[in-house]
Specification:
Ribose-5-phosphate isomerase A; Rossmann fold; Alpha-Beta Plaits; 6-stranded mixed beta sheet; binds ribose-5-phosphate
Length: 232
């Protein structure tokens, strides 16, 4: 089974947790997009949900699929959010933001009673940090903020650099919220809570991609099939 099929298998399994009448947060990224396709199919067959998307791209895909959307301002409390992740540790702590959507994803996840994360097996790690941690930062003073993140990373044993993310033509990537993304290569984050606190203390940091104690269930798909993990 290729990685695309695994993502689709996890997304399909997540549909078992979607119930009629739900207010549903809808994630961003290639795995979440598989979920949007299954959701659109179910909506076409009569499922009624209200969706709140975590990015402009997801909103577009949902609308193309006939999924009813509302803004989080109109539907501020959600029953469930289903989203992908870049890394998932055994306690279901996550790194997210590889697609640049971490701010809206975290706001939506925080507004949801439950978060289910869907992924192929390659996202499963013993400790977070191999995937560079995305940090959304304000454009004002971006270099000063980048250096402050670098100092935090160094204090926490980072092995690599902190780089501003660029888009396809080399210009800085701008998020849906109008911010920049700095990717911090830790290699291994031994104390995610301490890193999260230190990043939150930097004024130019809007949000970071550590989603700690937010997911209550992970659905992984791999060669051996689909397995579900809940918080220990
Ligand atoms: O900003 C993007 C999100 O956090 C994605 O959910 C994450 O990067 C995983 O994306 P994918 O399913 O494409 O690996």
């Amino acid at each position: 089974m290729g990685s695309d099929d695994m993502k689709a298998a996890a997304a399909r399994a997540a549909m078992d947790h979607v119930e009629n009448g739900m207010r549903l947060g809808i994630g961003t990224g290639s795995t979440a997009e598989k979920f949007v396709a299954f959701l659109a199919e179910a909506v076409g067959q009569g499922l009624e949900i209200i969706g709140v998307p975590t990015s402009e791209r997801t909103a577009r895909l949902c609308l193309e699929g006939g999924i009813r959307l509302e803004s989080l301002d109109d539907v501020p409390e959600l029953d469930l959010v289903i989203d992908g992740a870049d890394e998932i540790d055994p306690a279901l702590n996550l790194i997210k933001g590889g697609g640049g959507a971490l701010l809206r994803e975290k706001i939506v996840a925080h507004a949801a009673a439950r978060m289910i994360v869907i992924a192929d097996d390659s996202k499963c790690v013993e400790a977070l940090g191999r995937f560079p941690l995305p940090v959304e930062i304000n454009a004002f003073g971006a270099e000063a903020t980048r250096r402050a993140i670098e100092a935090v990373a160094r204090d926490h044993g980072a092995s690599g650099e902190v780089a501003l993310r660029t888009a396809s033509r080399g210009e800085p990537l701008i998020t849906d919220g109008g911010h920049l993304i700095a990717d911090a290569s830790f290699g291994h984050i031994s104390d995610p809570q301490a890193v999260a606190c230190a990043l939150n203390a930097i004024p130019g940091v809007v949000e970071h991609g550590l989603f700690l104690s937010m997911a209550s269930r992970a659905i992984f798909a791999g060669e051996a099939g689909v397995r579900e993990l809940t918080v220990p």
